[in-house]
Amino acid sequence: MKLDLIPATASTTEALHISADWRGEDISLYLDRCQVDTPQDLVAATWRAVEQRRAHIGTVVDFGAGDGRFARQGRYASYLGYEIDWNRCASDTLPANARIVHRCAFSDVVENADLAIGNPPFVRNQDLPAGWRQKVAEQLEARSGVALSGLANAWQYFFLLSLLSVSEDGLCAIVIPYEWVSRPSAARLRDYIRSKGWNVDVYRIADATFGGVLTTSAITIVDKRDATGRWRYFADDGSGGFQQLLSESGSACGHIPYRSARSTSPDSARAVRGLSPGSQQIFTLTEAQRARYGLAVEQDVIRCVTSLRHFPPTSGELDEEAFDRHFRYAGQRCWLLNVADEPSARLHAYLDSIDDDAQQATSTCRERPVWWKFKMPPVPDLLVATSFKGPIPKICSNSIGARAVGGVAGIYGLTVEATQAFMTAVSDLDIRDRIVAHANGLRKIEINQLNALLAEVR
Ligand SMILES: C[S@@+](CC[C@H](N)C(=O)[O-])C[C@H]1O[C@@H](n2cnc3c(N)ncnc32)[C@H](O)[C@@H]1O
User: Quick check: is 325 in a domain?
Assistant: First the structure.
């Protein structure tokens, strides 16, 4: 690992080696989202997990070193950190055997480190500039043969990079979202690790660890030495220790499987994720906003549900009265812009009132030929809140014909009798221990888990 320090004057764009299509505001948005400091006790717990497995560590690499806090704990012969934001590096206070370089983590080929440690950036795939993502994806695929999912978030690229940068006898100890153990978007990474037979231990951390970040984190240890293909899962027991879990979800039967709707017949029931129109702030309105812009119901806006949080769990049916009470006159975003036909003069006036920056703020809007023109989804038979705290997600039948938006998924293709039968069957279930925890006690059911549930209970 021989590297020269890039001068501190290099801009972040240069350090990232990215194309000009990554604009200044994209970089600051990216940095804003990914600069979360690891609490010192979590850094210490990660080092403890390393020291339980190795008596001596030679070379250490940290991709996304921040202020170098992983360098300040632990014992090693030499540490090399990569950090793109030079303002974050406090290199003058590093231990003498540690250094941080102002470079993109993907700008060098590091091989044969004893340990890759750290907390890589948590940035959603849609917030990663296409130029950068494509470049690092190609580089990683060339090195490993693994084509990460297009839905992979930033930490997956850093995780794979860490795996490739340690020796055949090496160790990888990184803090990443716990959901990697089950999410379909991380399947290729899991398959790759399984194909190598490396041992994996995942320690789930209490939700409060990262105040502002809505995710459940985990110290993930991948040990290439003595590979027996063993995977273990642990949860923070609240008193500084960890308790081994029976499976990744904690239950004896594991998590609800993923089943694509394509594996069932075309006319049978299927779950589909809620519409992502671009920005809910622009495309979904409250009743007060609708009235202010004089937008006509049915013509300019149509009913939608963006959240079932305020909908009573026992209601069961979303009819006109429930819609008015819990959504329309409760200040909820419940009107979706009706852009299926040519907009009326009123709707045009509303769209014209959105300033250029807001129009271009999401990649969904930027990539459309006409920034506001999305394809209107059909009306689902059932609405399902994909995030939930109770025994099952909130589900209601949709007699008012509302569109499912955002975290509210739709179930389509059910007859009236099947709708009733499904709701009755589901109401007896408790699936909490069959879904991997997401954050703050919230669980999130994936669309293809809903499809599996549909197949299971019907
Ligand atoms: C979650 S923070 C962790 C910082 C520090 N290691 C800690 O644990 O507190 C991730 C860090 O990765 C840096 N980073 C993001 N993308 C990077 C890249 N392509 N190359 C190098 N560093 C990067 C960010 O600036 C940020 O400091």
Answer: yes
Could you tell me if residue 250 is inside a domain? no
Query: Taking phi first (over 0 means left), then psi (-120 to 50 degrees means alpha), and beta for anything else, what does residue 149 get?
Result: beta
Residues 209 and 315 in one domain: no
Cβ < 6 Å from ligand 1: which residues? 16, 31, 34-38, 64-66, 69-70, 82-85, 88, 104-105, 118-119, 121
In sequence order, the 6+-apart residues with CB closer than 8 A to the CB of 450 are 271, 384, 386, 409, 411
Question: Could you read off the pLDDT of 150-170 as tens digits, one per residue?
Answer: 888 899 999 999 999 999 999
Q: Which of 14, 26, 32, 34 to mutate to test the pocket of ligand 1 (most atoms within 8 A of CB)?
A: 34
Domain match, 270 and 239 both: no
Read off the pLDDT of residues 256-271 as tens digits, 9 standing for 90 and up. Answer: 777 777 655 445 789 9
- 101: CATH: 3.40.50.150
| β strands within 322-361, DSSP E | 335-337
Last residue of a domain, one of 183, 212, 244: 244
Considering the domain boundaries, does residue 251 fall inside one?
A: no
Give CA–CA dist 285/287, Å, rounded. 7
358 in a domain, yes or no? yes
CA of 421 to the centre of ligand 1 (A): 49
Residue 355 lies in domain: 261-457
**Parallel, antiparallel, or unpaired for β 395-397 and 382-385?**
antiparallel
Residue 166's DSSP bridge partners are 113
**One domain, residues 150 and 16:** yes
Indicate whether this model's pTM tops 0.70: no
Residue 411 tokens, joined: 């179930």
435 C-alpha to center of ligand 1: Å? 30
